[in-house]
Amino acid sequence: LCRAVSPAIADCELSFIGREPIDAAKAQRQHANYVALLRQLGAEVIALPSEPDLPDSVFVEDTVLMFDDLAVLTRPGALSRRPEVAAIQQTVRQVREIVHEIQAPGTLDGGDVLRIGKQVYVGRSARSNQAAIDQLADFLRPFGYQVHAVVTRGCLHLKSAVTALDDETVLLQPRWVDRGQFADYRIIEVDDTEEHAANVLRVGDDLLMPDNFPRTRQRLLDAGYRVGTVDVSELQKAEGAVTCCSLLLA
Ligand code: GLY
Q1: What does the DSSP 8-state code read for residue 146?
Q2: Of the residues 9, 51, 56, which should be mutated to test ligand 1's pocket, given the most ligand atoms within 8 Å of the CB?
Q3: Residue 71 buriedness (CB in 10 A; 0-12 / 13-18 / 19+)
Q4: Cα dihedral across residues 24, 52, 197, 44: positive or negative
Q5: Given ligand 1 and candidates 63, 156, 158, 234, which is best to mutate, with the most ligand atoms within 8 Å of its CB?
Q6: pLDDT digits (tens, 9 = 90+) for 151-163
């Protein structure tokens, strides 16, 4: 599930990077290419139209958590992003029967939620708080998921700092999250010179990552992964990455 880039993307939220001009038309072309790559990797894409009044709405991952058995509508930490949830909830209710909602005082961005099998790691970050983590744990317990809070530092979301390459392995930026939190997994670290390289999207058995982290990509190739790349430079200026531009339904 993807949403086209808003023409207002230059007015996006920024937390840990400086503002620089964003070319909305270029961002739209890069996003269209990202969607085409998802299709090439075998995904069936539900494409939602752009939202002219919601600058960050291309980052659909932050608005909903998708599990096999249920969906959870989030309550984003940034006020400007809360209306994005209303904009997507009708579509969510078409694909999941059980839909829970994070309630105040909870705040949660989907970028803070990393699911690996039945383990769900949630960043306690600038955007997501313990109240939301507790609500999420209550929603997921009946379905056999275990929720773990993970403290992040210096980055927007947990998935800026760590993503899963498969169910046994994570790619991690040690400056932003403690390795010890993922001691149950094989850990591959990003290259020192590629600060933002930990955000990688799994699509089936393939991985997709931005094209400007060649050293980290080489580590993944050396470890035996199949890793495609995509140019998302304009979306990176909006503090976005590859996982946040889609919601995986399966
Ligand atoms: N611009 C992405 C975010 O701050 O949520």
Answers
A1: E
A2: 56
A3: buried
A4: negative
A5: 156
A6: 999 999 999 999 9
Two structure tokens written together for 141: 């317990």
Q: What is the pLDDT of residues 56-88, one digit of tens each?
A: 999 999 999 999 999 999 999 999 999 999 999
Q: Whose CA is nearest to atom 5 of ligand 1?
A: 13
* Nearest atom, ligand 1, residue 59 CA: 2
Output DSSP code: residue 111: G
Tell me if 239 CB under 6 Å of ligand 1.
yes
> Rounded to whole angstroms, how far apart are CA atoms 134 and 150?
13
Closest atom of ligand 1 to CA, residue 109? 5
Query: What is residue 42's predicted lDDT score, i.e. its pLDDT?
Result: 96
pLDDT higher than threshold 90 for residue 250: no
Q: Does the predicted TM-score (pTM) go above 0.85?
A: yes
Task: State whether the beta carbon of 54 lies less than 6 angstroms from ligand 1.
Answer: no
Distance set, CA 229 to CA 93, 163, 201, 209, 242 (Å): 32, 16, 10, 5, 10
Active-site positions read: 157, 244
Closest protein CA for atom 3 of ligand 1: 13
Query: What mean pLDDT is predicted for residues 145-154?
Result: 97
